Amino acid sequence: MSAGYGDDIGTARPTASDLTSALARGPVLGTFQVMPGPAVTETLVFAGAEVVCLDAEHAAFDMASLEHHVRAAQSVGGTVVIRVPEVGAVLSRSLDTGAAGVVVPRVETAAQARSAVAAVRFPPLGARGLGGGRAAAYGLELADYRSRANDSLLLVLMVETRTGLDNVEEIAAVDGVDVIFAGPVDLASSLGVAVGSDVHEAAVRRILDAGLAAGRHVGILCADAAEAARYAALGARLLMVSLDAAVLARAFSQQLRETRSALTDHPENRRSEQ
Predict the structure, then answer these.
(1) Do residues 100 and 80 touch, judged by C-beta distance below 8 A?
(2) What is the C-alpha to C-alpha distance for residues 110 and 177, in angstroms, rounded to an integer?
(3) Confidence band, pLDDT 50/70/90 cuts, at residue 18
(4) Per-residue confidence at 19, pLDDT binned at 50, 70, 90?
(5) Rounded CA gap, 87 and 51, in Å?
(6) Record's InterPro entries (predicted)?
(7) d(CA 231, CA 181)
(8) Nearest-CA neighbor of 48 among 83, 18, 13?
(9) How far apart are CA 211 and CA 201, in angstroms?
(10) Active site residues
(11) How do residues 171-222 score in pLDDT, each as one tens digit?
């Protein structure tokens, strides 16, 4: 392998898919995936992501492809959660793929939070139906899956609107919720303020504080390492750093700038310009 390929790639990968236990131990680092392709999922796991969130809210994933992405991550020791478009049957179907959890966007009321819990948890905690999907070994391990799913599957609720912010304490208090997750970009848009402004920072802090006060883990989308460290100091455990497409664009843009600079500075090229 040529020098420069894989020089900064981490080799440590998670060995378990129980994110609940991982979050209890300390911060969990991951990223959002918007570029469809199981190879992308594998690459993110190989690079060291402890969890990959497949973004079925915004990206071109369907249920059949989501299952392949989950399978790809698990084949190399990785963990996947799925961000669903909305509360509904898609929650149970997403978990049937074998994903370790689901992320519900734009939760604005305690009633919506309770609906999400009902869709994700089996009775008596919820109302999820049993199915012979991949998570239950296509029905061969149905009883075992049902017995452990309520405790092991992660339910993440995103608070990212003005209405959600107004109701965040009630949302966080709903039994069956594991993580309250701040969506900083949509939150800024909903509030009509800039990301990082005083109003925005106070809103993010309120979301994190509400989750912690209710005994939940809290998380947030971070732009970079410095932001992740800052929010971890405030108690955030689920730290999703950027997203695959943005990382690819920044890295390749930097690579091209460095290459153009090297070409310009190379003695042979300077002589050819004279």
Answers:
(1) yes
(2) 11
(3) confident
(4) confident
(5) 22
(6) Aldolase/citrate-lyase_domain, HpcH-HpaI_aldolase, Pyrv/PenolPyrv_kinase-like_dom, Pyrv_kinase-like_dom_sf
(7) 12
(8) 13
(9) 16
(10) 58
(11) 999 999 999 999 999 999 999 999 999 999 999 999 999 999 999 999 999 9
3 state SS for the chain: CCCCCCCCCCCCCCCCCCHHHHHHHCCEEEEEECCCCHHHHHHHHHCCCCEEEEECCCCCCCHHHHHHHHHHHHHCCCCEEEECCCCCHHHHHHHHCCCCEEEECCCCCHHHHHHHHHHHCCCCCCCCCCCCCHHHHHHCCHHHHHHHHHHHCEEEEEECCHHHHHCHHHHHCCCCCCEEEECHHHHHHHHCCCCCCHHHHHHHHHHHHHHHHCCCEEEEEECCHHHHHHHHHCCCCEEEEEEHHHHHHHHHHHHHHHHHHHHHHCHHHHHHHC
Any bridge partners for residue 221, and if so which? 240
Give the whole-angstrom CA distance, residue 52 versus residue 73: 8
- Considering just the CA atoms, what is the radius of gyration of the chain in Å? 21
Burial 252-272 (b: 16+ CB within 10 A, else e): eeeeeeeeeeeeeeeeeeeee
Q: Give the contacts of 214 (CB within 8 A, at least 6 positions apart).
A: 169, 172, 173, 177, 180
Neighbour tally for 20: CB within 10 Å: 16
Give CA–CA dist 270/80, Å, rounded: 50
Tell me the whole-structure pTM to 2 decimals. 0.90
What is the pLDDT at residue 264?
87
Q: Which CATH superfamily is domain 19-273 in?
A: Phosphoenolpyruvate-binding domains (3.20.20.60)
Cα gap 79→156, rounded to integer Å? 15
Please give the Cα distance from 5 to 3 (Å, whole number): 6
Least confident of 16-25, 52-61, 166-175, 180-189: 16-25
